[in-house]
Design brief:
Layout (H helix, E strand, L loop, with lengths): L4 H5 L3 H10 L11 H8 L3 H15 L12 H14 L7 H12 L8 E4 L7 H8 L4 E4 L16 H4 L12
Parallel strand pairs: 1-2
Length: 171
């Protein structure tokens, strides 16, 4: 049996999902839509949309805390986030990736090497998780295949100082 959230994040995705389902919480099959949040929290669609934007920005960032700015959107975003943590709302992929980042701060698995593929399309939370491993790091990517900039993806190869050779083209 999986007894803690910390244990769940060390497991394969199917087992991690099983943990949340055991707790009565499902992983949402995508991101929430503004109309869903508006209905769940009794707010206008525009406020729901703004809160979801605040949440997604937090979930994909390397930031460790949800901003405490005093806008209605931030207040609603914080409420949604707390509801996910406390199992009152289904979670999203972005949520559990952020939770893994936050849990990883306390305990790092030990590996000799770690590889980040698709480095040209990496968000800040994924890059932060990758960089915090105590291991030799390899980033693979092709800047000509970057397709997720619209989702906040960055080119990790531009953000990381390499102390080794860069290969121009692999065959």
């Amino acid at each position: 049996a999986i007894n803690s959230r910390r244990q769940a994040f060390r497991l394969a995705p199917a087992l991690r999902d099983q943990y949340y389902i055991q707790k009565g919480q499902e992983i949402h099959d995508g991101n929430y839509k503004p109309a869903q949040i508006a209905n769940l929290y009794g707010v206008e669609n525009l406020l729901a949309y703004e809160a979801l934007c605040v949440l997604e920005e937090f979930f994909t960032s390397d930031t460790r805390e949800l901003s405490s700015r005093t806008s209605d959107a931030h207040t609603l975003a914080y409420t949604i986030y707390r509801d996910m943590i406390e199992h009152r709302r289904d979670i999203t992929h972005s949520f559990y990736l952020k939770q893994y980042q936050l849990l990883q701060d306390k305990e790092h698995p030990k590996y000799d090497y770690i590889l980040l593929d698709e480095g040209q399309d990496t968000n800040d939370v994924t890059l932060d998780i990758f960089l915090n491993f105590d291991a030799a790091k390899i980033i693979v990517g092709d800047t000509h295949q970057a397709i997720y900039g619209w989702r906040g993806a960055r080119n990790a190869m531009d953000k990381v100082q390499a102390d080794a050779n860069q290969i121009g083209r692999a065959h």
